[in-house]
Design brief:
It is a single chain. By secondary structure, this protein is of the alpha+beta class. It has two domains: 61 residues, no CATH class; 76 residues, no CATH class. Helices cover 24% and strands 18% of the residues. The chain has five helices and seven strands, in the order βββββααααββα. A hairpin with a 2-residue loop joins strand 3 and strand 4. The chain starts with 11 loop residues before the first strand and ends in a 23-residue tail after the last helix.
């Protein structure tokens, strides 16, 4: 035989407060114990006592709706003009499959923790002025508020690291240079 599940009136379990005695009611082909409760949101519900006790039921359903809505709505700024700039910056530094990773994340350049949030990035950098792009003042420094600004492409071209260009020796043929072993 199962044990009797008794809850005290006024007992709180999750967002639910017991407001009356448990009742044994038919449920499908057997009988189950149900408990009337008042949810923190004000809704009165009758829930399976077993689910209430083991924590499977913690509210009238409003907690799940609230949590789902909160998770789905991180910042509501996905269509903001700077959102793709932010995504591209993070991809260059964090995603080894990104074509530019070798020049950013592969060199140890990272994005500060604060900028894991698009909202924080937007607060720190502000709206992008027309014809300007995101620039790191120190080309070897990380993406962080103190090291970033909006600048023109021509100024950014002056702030590039020096690339070593390989010089091909040419003697008019495809073989090794004269005198090479």
């Amino acid at each position: 035989m199962g044990t009797t599940l008794l809850l005290e009136v006024g007992e709180e379990l999750g967002w639910l407060t017991v407001i009356g005695p448990s009742l044994l009611l038919p449920s499908g082909d057997r009988r189950r114990r149900f408990t009337p409760c008042l949810c923190r949101c004000g809704e009165v519900v009758t829930v399976t006592t077993h689910h209430l006790i083991n924590g499977d039921t913690r509210s009238c359903g409003c907690l799940r709706k609230q949590t789902t809505a909160k998770n789905a709505r991180k910042h509501g700024l996905k269509k903001h003009p700077l959102y793709m700039t932010w995504c591209a910056m993070r991809a260059r530094c964090n995603n080894p499959k990104n074509a530019a990773y070798k020049n950013y994340g592969g060199r140890g350049i990272s994005v500060c923790k604060r900028w894991d949030s698009f909202q924080a990035f937007l607060e720190d950098m502000g709206e992008r002025p027309e014809n300007l792009t995101l620039e790191r003042k120190d080309n070897d420094g990380n993406y962080e508020p103190e090291n970033c600004c909006w600048d023109t492409r021509s100024n950014q071209n002056k702030n590039q690291r020096r690339r070593l260009r390989s010089r091909k020796r040419s003697n008019g043929c495809n073989g090794p240079p004269p005198g090479a072993p």
